[in-house]
Amino acid sequence: MPKKKIAVVGAGFVGSTAAYTMMMNNTADEIVLIDINRDKAEGDALDMNHGMSFLPPVRFYSGWYGDCADAALVVLTAGAAQKPGERRMELLGRNLRVFDDILSQLLPNLAPNALLLTVTNPVDVLTQYVLERSGLPPSRVMGSGTVLDTSRLKWAIAEQVGVDPRNVHTFVVGEHGDTEVAAFSATTVSGMRLDQYCGGAPLGMSGTGAGYRQSLLSCEAFFHSLHDGVRRAAYGIIEKKGATYYAVALAVNRIAEAALNDQKAVLTVSGLVDGAYGIGGVCLSLPRVVGAGGIERLLEVPYDGGEIRALRHSAETIRKAYAAACVPVRA
Ligand code: NAD
After folding, report:
1. CA 293 – ligand 1 centroid, Å
2. With 108 labelled, which of 145, 155, 225, 229 sits at a CA distance of 20 to 30 A?
3. CB of 147 shorter than 6 A to ligand 1
């Protein structure tokens, strides 16, 4: 069996928790953690190795970009994070400088078929920057995009309808950020449209759904009120504890295991859109099949007209931010 190696760049809240989650889930045989703050990466590696006697073997160490030469996946989590009240897009200028520093060292050391996964915000603009600057095929450059937001929305709906979040199917698409779109038209509870499910089931038996009225309109309105909570979720968590990292680490792990184990999992990763819904030349999230080749296919789900208009608006927001800030230099 070929070795499965993951490099994580950035040993902050997100990078270290993602590395820990991947270690705990045995997602890779080897994990290397890289950070400009070498002491932090070294300290984390030691701390994690001290628990290794409780786990199936994983080689875990701190390193530098030369250690990426045999990594199947490189996860980019380094850079500034949001402060309370700060929007993701406001991080762009700072994180472009961080990415320039990282990419100039990483790209000459990349394995021939390596996949790149951007997590740092604003994740869609930075995914596009990595794609442009690396010159890699679009299939090999992903962002964690709205995988986290989709999971948040599944959980919020599941709490209301009283089922396992894994039996809720929905997509948050577009920007991972303020213009993201939740697709009510593609939301089901195990194949049953949400409004049908709500019409026939004892909704409100759990959670705060008790006041919910079972009409088509209020079901959709209720869905959008849940999504408003999802859109604002990071602001609330950052206000309370300064950062978000557990759920995004699980999202990173899910993408990594789909790619490294060729699972063909449908995930709302960010990637280049080339014509779908009349959108082209911009990176954003849509449901995609993720396997050993990275992004293997885009699922052009038939969203309704309002959702598609909102998706195009989201694409425009990302496009403008990219055009205003990014001047990619091919390595
Ligand atoms: P953090 O401040 O805890 O960690 C950032 C790390 O990056 C630090 O350890 C720092 O030393 C390192 N770093 C900075 N410049 C570097 C460079 N040039 N080379 C190597 N390492 C460098 O921040 P965090 O909470 O871990 O967040 C990291 C990023 O992840 C932020 O941009 C945040 O907004 C983003 N994030 C994304 C999602 C998502 O769903 N996409 C979710 C949560 C956070």
Report:
1. 26
2. 145
3. no
Per-residue pLDDT of the chain (331 residues; tens, 9 = 90+): 667 999 999 999 999 999 999 999 999 999 999 999 999 999 999 999 999 999 999 999 999 999 999 999 999 999 999 889 898 989 999 999 999 999 999 999 999 999 999 999 999 999 999 999 999 999 999 999 999 999 999 999 999 888 999 999 999 999 999 999 999 999 999 999 988 887 744 444 334 444 444 444 478 888 999 999 999 999 999 999 999 999 999 999 999 999 999 999 999 999 999 999 999 999 999 999 999 999 999 999 999 999 999 999 999 999 999 999 876 555 4
Ligand 1 atom nearest to 91, measured from its CA:
32
321 lines ligand 1 (CB under 6 A): no
Please give the distance, rounded to the nearest whole angstrom, from the Cα atom of residue 88 to the centre of ligand 1. Answer: 12
Amino acid at 30: E
For residues 217 and 213, what is the distance between their CA atoms, to the nearest angstrom?
A: 9
Rounded to whole angstroms, how far apart are CA atoms 14 and 8?
Answer: 10
Q: Where are the domains of the chain?
A: 5-143
Indicate whether residue 145 lines ligand 1 (CB < 6 A).
no
- Indicate the DSSP class of residue 295: E
Catalytic amino acids? 176
Q: How many CB atoms lie within 10 A of CB 310?
A: 19
Contact predicate 126/143, CB 8 Å = yes
Task: Answer whether 91 contacts ligand 1 (Cβ < 6 A).
Answer: yes
Q: CATH number of the domain at 5-143, please?
A: 3.40.50.720
